[in-house]
Amino acid sequence: MAAPRRLQMCAVAPAAKHTASVVFLHGSGDTGQGLRAWVRDVMKPDLSFPHIRVIYPTAPQRPYTPMRGAPSNVWFDRMKISRDSPEHLSSIDAIAESLGSLIQDEVNAGIPKHRIIIGGFSMGGAMALHLACRFHTDVAGVFALSSFLNKDSVAFQAVEQRCRSLLPVPELLQCHGTGDDLVLHEWGQDTAARLQAAGMKCSFRSYSGLQHQLYGPEMELLRGWILSRLPLS
Question: Where is the Phospholipase/carboxylesterase/thioesterase domain (predicted)?
Fold first, then answer.
């Protein structure tokens, strides 16, 4: 088997000793640098912490079916942006290996898995849910902003099987705007409801009128939630 592809990334270093990490995945067509710049635009002064390294990886370019096969920086392929579409598991699982290598780099640097949070915006949120529900169930938490899972996602099945076996799963924070016309608010609501029904502890926050975008109050909520999961140590 070929070695996992190394991902380009940018990161915000902690102001003091590095004792925890957050991996923040961008949406389709974006880059780690693009997401990092967007976060800085909507948050003052920044999503930064004295003890947490915030990592923004970039998805490699691949043919993307919703763009008629044109190359794009996407975490996985899909037939269309719809919860009714089947998952493209081969591309999801392949990039999960590369992201797993990035997480392992943090572990090798002395950060235990229970001091790592995975999250993302839009497609990045869906990828984060696959990582936390299927591959890295021992992380401190997962967040998904303006995101959803397909209605028959294997991530639902994975959570249900773990909870039935009394195995832990990470806690989820999910946020979504009611005005989102790309990833509908009801898709996000349904995702959280199905994960909660499977046994996952979920918090879902709606923002009235918010479209498919990051939002300052949402990001401040995220900052507080991250600190609750990864306190200064």
Answer: 12-223
